[in-house]
Model the fold of this input.
Amino acid sequence: QVWDSYYKITEDIPTPEWVIHEDSTRSVIGFNCTMATTHFRGRDWKVWFSEEIPLPLGPWKLGGLPGLILAAHCDGFLDIIASNIKREQLSPVKFYNFWEKKYKDIDRLSYLKKASDPTIYPKNTTMIPKMELE
Done:
């Protein structure tokens, strides 16, 4: 929401194009993992995923494999390794119904520009000018 208008940000979420290396395996916190590699967002990534946890998820924007990514490596940039998997029963999640209000479609950059524009204020309000410190 930007003041009295509601927006729905629309953008494509890029998915890495993975090369799965079936012959390269290792164990990460007790799970059998397979290596996959990709060039994504300007970096070369090597990850280890486990099909024993069939979720196509991973850290940051890494995902899209047939199992959960438990380790990710980017030369000279970042190393992420799972240290524990906690399994517990969670209560059901309630989702907000976004269709209750009328939203305007907007791309992310336009939304950020609009949200940071100090000239857009709600009706019946007063803008207090920023004071200079002496």
Notes: The chain has a mean pLDDT of 83.
